[in-house]
Amino acid sequence: MKRTPLADQIQKIDIIEHVTEDHYRELLAISRVYLNSETETVNFIDLFEEGMLLTIQYGDQQKTDLIPFLATGEIHHKVRHLAMTAIERSSDSQSQAKHQFFDVLHNQMITKNICRLTLKSSQPLPIDKPGYAWNFSLTTFDHIPDMAELKINEQRRYYTLRQAKKSSATVAFNDIAFVDVFLHGNTPGSVWSRNLQQGDIIHSAGDYNEKTDHLEQGNTVLIADETSLPTVAWLLENWKNPLPPTVISITHQIEDQDYLNNSQLPENSQIHHIHYSNCADNLLQILETIPQIDAVWGAFEHHAAKIIRQYLRTQRKLDARQNRVKGYWIE
Which of 144, 179, 267, 331 is the most buried (most CB within 10 A)? Predict the structure, then answer.
């Protein structure tokens, strides 16, 4: 198979690091579906326009091969599509345990453009997992459907758990979830979230948990826009680092800056509020003023995240484990 090098080698490094560090489960699914179902470990070796070069280990054998993409378009889209297809095709993805249903108890606006969904679950909810998100199907039910009723290819969106708690002192586990959603225009996820009401039943087909353990020591920076502020809010309320963080909050409208309030910040924290316009330039200006940066977590617009990730890698010498900056959406 032809192997055309990517024109943007920095983007290649970004994608390989991001997939390896943050999406190893998906990488393993790709190798098991398209190379060998008995794969034990996998290394993402290289990336080409035509596919992903992986080295897998199974038993005492090792194999390196190129996995061809199944879609066309931009490289990050082709990688994501291959990963999603592998997850769907793997038997693990169809297990009952991956599916979860929630009763909608309440839907309220907490800032001008961010709504809070109050959901009830019959399954235990995470206790200490900042950045935990469910892959919600953009549909509603009036009853819990049979598994056969669920459409594998229906539209889905990841939305982040802001907080979990018990509905009463007698409940054995956290069963109430607060999920905060940024509403922006008439996008499918915004329309779905805006219209949810008490009594609706919604469905999640999977989950994802951000890696934030690297923030527990050293001088840290948190960068978030409306889509990732729930993760930062959880981190701040449960801050485990003796050193306070620098927080950069990005919003399209100033009214949504109220999402983070000063009472959530660890003592001596610094917070910067910036507008979305010229996001990358504004972020770079702030980062340049910070003498020492040891670890960063951030999630915001894809192109801006790419610029910041490169700056942290080349100018601040942060490796992939300490430089966890990613794009949550593409302009």
Answer: 179
